Amino acid sequence: MTSTTTTHETISAEPRTNTPLELPGSQYTYLGEDTEGGHHHLEERSSTIYVTDQPPERYLPSDAPIYWFRVQGTLEHVESLPPRAVGGWVEYVNQKRGWTKPPLLIDASIAHPSEVSR
Fold it and tell me: Which ranges are annotated Low complexity under compositional bias (predicted)?
C-alpha cells in the first residue's frame, strides 16, 4: 500500500502591501489615476502594468544621474502586456473605470526595448 501526503496551501485573496516596483525613470512611466483610486504604473522593459493604491515617489539617489521612481502601497493588480499594447490598457481602463486625467501621448512615448533600433 502506498501512502500519500496531502499538502494544503493557503492562498490569500488579500492585496499585497510592499514596494512592488523601484526603477530608474528611463524604465518607468506613470500612466495615471483611475476614478476608483487605482494608480497605474508601467514597467517599460517587460510591458507590465502595476495598479496600486498610491502614486509613485520620485527621488534622486546620491550616485544616480537620473531620477528613480518607487511605487509603494497595496498592489491591486499586475498585468503583463504584449509589446506596444499599453494603448489598449489605457482604453480598457477608460471604459471600465475611467481616468481622473487621461494619459497623454501614450503610444508616442512608449516603445518596447526590442523595437528600438540602435
Answer: 1-10
Confidence of residue 9 (pLDDT cuts 50, 70, 90): very low
pLDDT of residue 33: 96
Give the pLDDT confidence of 69-90 residue by residue, as tens digits: 999 999 999 999 998 899 999 9
| CB distance 49 to 78 below 8 Å | yes
Q: H/E/C letters for each residue in 56-103?
A: CEEECCCCCCCCEEEEEEEEEEEEECCCCCHHHHHHHHHHHCCECCCC
Cell numbers given for 76: 491591486
SS3 content of the chain, % helix, strand, coil (to 5): 20, 35, 45
Sign of CA dihedral 52, 86, 42, 57: negative
